[in-house]
Write a structure and sequence with these properties.
alpha+beta; Glutaredoxin; 2 domains; five-stranded mixed β-sheet; 7 helices; globular
Length: about 170
């Protein structure tokens, strides 16, 4: 496990100190840490557990229960593709395959350059729009019948990856 630098540890300590006396402090602190660092490292779970007067196991249980939390650093751009029944039947596997090729990100992982994270999810709650995906919080329905997802990824690559190479 990679150790956090002192700046990240200071951010965590500040978040814990500012929120430890609020109602429902565990969730509040977890959200703030993830917003600040992009993920929730184990060190944060330890500090949050101590401040909330609970066990690290309980905090870890909260982190792993909610799909919105992650214990691994995320890419700058997060893509979720639904593989629930309705989406899968309507072709979401082809969307995953396309995103894999374009982003070079593993499923449920992050691309080596840190630009993309790709998550295969079980349901995004929009079955009537199947297949559904989300890119940076923007929901795209009927995603195999339009090029919006493909176009968004291409634009990100054009603006970010190609800029880095220039």
């Amino acid at each position: 496990m990679k150790k956090l630098n002192s700046a990240a540890l200071q951010k965590i300590s500040k978040i814990v100190e500012e929120n430890k006396d609020r109602p429902g402090p565990t969730i509040v602190m977890l959200h703030k840490v993830q917003d600040e660092l992009g993920y929730i490292p184990f060190e944060a779970m330890e500090k949050i557990a101590e401040a909330a007067k609970t066990s690290v196991a309980e905090v870890y249980g909260v982190v792993t229960f909610y799909a919105g939390f992650t214990t691994e650093p995320r890419g700058k751009h997060v893509i979720n593709v639904c593989l629930g029944t309705a989406c899968y039947v309507k072709g979401s596997q082809a969307l995953i395959d396309d995103v894999l090729k374009m982003t070079e990100s593993p499923i449920n992982g992050t691309s080596k350059d840190g630009l993309f994270s790709l998550d295969a999810t079980r349901c995004l709650g929009a079955c009537g729009l199947a297949p559904v995906c989300v890119i940076d919080g923007q929901v795209i329905g009927n995603a195999n019948q339009n090029t919006k997802l493909h176009d968004e990824i291409e634009e990100i690559i054009r603006n970010e990856r190609n800029t880095e190479r220039a």
